[in-house]
Amino acid sequence: MDTANQDINLNSPNKGLGTNDLSDVPAEGAVGNAARTLPPGMTEEEAEELRTELTKVEEEIHTLRQVLAAKEKHATELKRKLGLSPLTEFKQNLTKGWQDVQTSNAYVKTAERLSEWNDSLYKKTQETLSVAGQKTTAAFSTMGTAISRKLGDMRNSPTFKSFEDKVGNLKSKVVGGRANGEEVQSPEQTNNPAQDNAPF
């Protein structure tokens, strides 16, 4: 790569590929003005030594940028040949990241704690529903007993007996005469045990 076209911004997406032409700036251009005003207690020789060292470090940085750019280009070419697209890389990174999260201590402890809460909540809900079911069953049983008692009381009441007699009379009038070889009798005359087994 041409050393004159290097981008010196390390955060730039074009690092190593810049278009700034720095070839006309001398290596000590940034510190050239500082040579006139040296910090107190520093000799000209010490300042010259620091300038030389700065120049060497800047050259090393420049060389490393060139090497890095070449390596990145080579890696991109290898990935292209292997059929690895940026999307494939992204998926792999995501999968690896998710696996790392799942095996992390924080995730494992959180999952265990949530499992404990879930079990506890399930048990409490189950107990609550069981108690509610028992109470509901008891309430329906009590209500059924009360209804049966009320119907029994109603059946023995004079109003119901009068209604029963009227229905019996109506039946005898509708059916008339004999039914199945039996004589028709009024409900007052008979003491029919079949009526005692009536549902009410």
Task: Provide structural commentary.
2% of the residues are buried. The chain has 200 residues and is mostly helical. The chain has helices at residues 44-82, 86-103, 105-155, 158-175, 193-196. The radius of gyration is 51 Å and the shape is rod-shaped.
Key attributes of the depicted protein:
200 residues; mainly alpha; 5 helices; rod-shaped; 65% helix; single chain
Order of helices and strands: HHHHH
Count of individual beta strands: 0
Structural class call reads mainly alpha
| Structure annotation, total helices | 5
Mean pLDDT: 76
Low-confidence stretches: 18-26, 28-35
Portion of residues in helices?
A: 55-70%
**Which overall shape is indicated by the principal axes computed on the Cα atoms?**
rod-shaped
Q: Strand content of the residues, in percent?
A: under 5%
Topology of this structure?
Elements: H1 44-82, H2 86-103, H3 105-155, H4 158-175, H5 193-196
Summarize the structure.
Helix content is 65%, strand content 0%. It is mostly helical and 200 residues long. The protein is rod-shaped, with a radius of gyration of 51 Å.
